[in-house]
């Protein structure tokens, strides 16, 4: 079989990437799957590298993705200002449908057991005459992927090859060809069509550098024999796209959007409501596997009642409602009646607007896990994104860490090219792992500690300590500012 030479190969969340002869191969995961190619091609120093992007899914569907203005995907990401700046730098942001993007300027976080609260915003560094700075920006993953593919198309880069509807059948070291290059230390990928897609691409690709962006079960990581540490949380993240009622008290100042997160220790994790354009929002509720199954089984009215209750009622009330029997008919709605009655006897403040609708088909869940690779590099291999690390979503940092990986790796590749180094040599990659491993470990570890800290229910010393810490941070501006600067990248 002929060996097709490529510089860089990029794959997707459920794909594997195989590079071709003299360059780089990168597998991708989720919304970050197409970031590597524009990041490498954006620099004049690396624009001559031959790059291959391998994707198991049909990229034509991703390019033509379109949604009704009042419907939003439940696969949404929160982008820090640093991530937005990176996407602008590589020319992808201008291709984003900004009518479907929503920045927010404040985040309210509180403890459902003790009601201790902290507000994250930049008011301490903004004058009264300035608009509040953005804390983060919400966008659908599909919107971001389409923008990245549009950026690739606009570049007209003849050194970039895209393999859509293609999967990686195997990865192995190449051989020393008497009449060709010695590929014995190079990863060689065997490609196969996904499903019934026509096999028009070369069947094998060799890579000077194979970049694994192929998700938590990364075949590239297995090929490189890189170990991972981690555990499953025995929790699921329940997601949904919601519509909100107009708040009784308008947000001040006008135009400011707020995200809300309430920790629910007795139910297994936090619930977060993050703003989307108009009166829409996305839900991420981390809870036990049993609670997640219960929530997904409810009627739309009952599900809405549980979400509203989760931001307003006590832990005792919530635990009772989580054990209520499901409605036997579509007309019955005991959860809504129960919420109405219990709210009459509950004091609450600074809660999100009432949820009044859930988009059909948007309620789903995914398992929560923690994983961290022992290293991000080996000879001719680099890992980015979920292939290198998976963290708890409570801080919304997953995609941001992946984008940070891509930006750092692109700099390492650029440095190697500028100095005549082999981009796949371990010396060329050491700066990347030194730059990113500790940073990702710190953020992932902090999220893990917060998850465990806020899974201790009841009024006890742990609850008292976490509430005391939350109150202190909220009252000391420079500490809160320090935390926000670290979170934004």
Describe the structure.
With 489 residues, the protein is an alpha/beta fold. It has two domains: 3-76 and 142-230 and 369-448, 3-Layer(bba) Sandwich (FAD/NAD(P)-binding domain), CATH 3.50.50; 81-138 and 234-366, D-Amino Acid Oxidase, subunit A, domain 2 (D-Amino Acid Oxidase, Chain A, domain 2, 2-Layer Sandwich). Helices cover 31% and strands 25% of the residues. The protein contains 13 helices and 23 strands. A hairpin with a 5-residue loop joins strand 7 (106-111) and strand 8. It starts with a strand and ends with a helix. This is Ubiquinone biosynthesis monooxygenase COQ6, mitochondrial. Residues 12-25 have a biased composition (Low complexity).
């Amino acid at each position: 079989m002929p060996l097709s030479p490529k510089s860089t190969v990029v794959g997707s969340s459920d794909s594997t990437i195989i590079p071709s002869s003299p360059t780089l191969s990168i597998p991708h995961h989720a919304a970050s799957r197409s970031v590597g190619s524009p990041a490498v091609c954006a620099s004049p120093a690396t624009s001559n590298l031959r790059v291959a992007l391998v994707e198991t899914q049909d990229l034509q569907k991703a390019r033509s993705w379109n949604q009704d203005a009042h419907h939003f995907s439940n696969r949404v990401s929160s982008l820090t200002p640093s991530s937005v700046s990176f996407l602008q730098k590589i020319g992808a942001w201008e291709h984003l449908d900004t009518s479907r993007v929503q920045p927010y300027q404040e985040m309210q976080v509180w403890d459902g057991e003790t009601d201790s609260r902290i507000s994250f915003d930049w008011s301490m560094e903004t004058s009264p005459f300035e608009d509040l700075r953005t804390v983060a920006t919400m966008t659908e993953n599909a919107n971001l992927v389409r923008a990245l593919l549009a950026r690739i198309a606009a570049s007209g880069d003849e050194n970039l090859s895209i393999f859509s509807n293609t999967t990686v059948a195997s990865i192995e070291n190449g051989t020393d060809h008497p009449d060709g290059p010695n590929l014995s230390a190079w990863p060689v990928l065997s490609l196969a069509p996904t499903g019934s897609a026509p096999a028009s691409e070369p069947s094998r690709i060799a890579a000077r550098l194979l970049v694994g962006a192929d998700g938590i079960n990364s075949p590239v990581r297995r090929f490189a024999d890189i170990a991972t540490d981690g555990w499953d949380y025995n929790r699921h993240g329940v997601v949904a796209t919601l519509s909100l009622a107009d708040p009784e008290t308008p947000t001040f100042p006008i135009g400011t959007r707020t995200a809300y997160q309430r920790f629910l220790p007795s139910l297994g994790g936090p619930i977060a409501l993050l703003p989307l354009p108009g009166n829409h929002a996305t839900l991420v509720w981390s809870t036990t596997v049993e609670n997640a199954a219960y929530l997904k089984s409810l009627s739309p009215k009952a599900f809405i009642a549980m979400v509203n209750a989760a931001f307003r009622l006590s832990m005792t009330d919530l635990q009772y409602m989580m054990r209520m029997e499901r409605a036997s008919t579509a007309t019955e709605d005991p959860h809504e009646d129960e919420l109405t009655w219990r709210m009459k006897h509950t004091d609450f403040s600074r809660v999100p607007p009432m949820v009044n609708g859930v988009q059909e088909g948007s309620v789903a869940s995914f398992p929560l896990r923690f994983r961290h690779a022992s290293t991000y590099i080996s000879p001719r291999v680099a890992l980015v994104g979920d292939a290198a690390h998976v963290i708890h979503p409570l801080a919304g940092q997953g995609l941001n860490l992946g984008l940070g990986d891509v930006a750092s790796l692109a700099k390492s590749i650029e440095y190697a090219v500028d100095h005549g180094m082999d981009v796949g040599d371990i010396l060329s990659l050491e700066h990347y792992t030194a730059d990113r491993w500790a940073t990702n470990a710190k953020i992932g570890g902090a999220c893990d500690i917060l998850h465990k800290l806020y899974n201790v229910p009841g009024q006890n010393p742990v609850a008292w300590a976490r509430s005391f810490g939350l109150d202190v941070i909220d009252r000391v501006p420079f500490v809160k500012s320090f935390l926000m600067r670290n979170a934004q990248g």
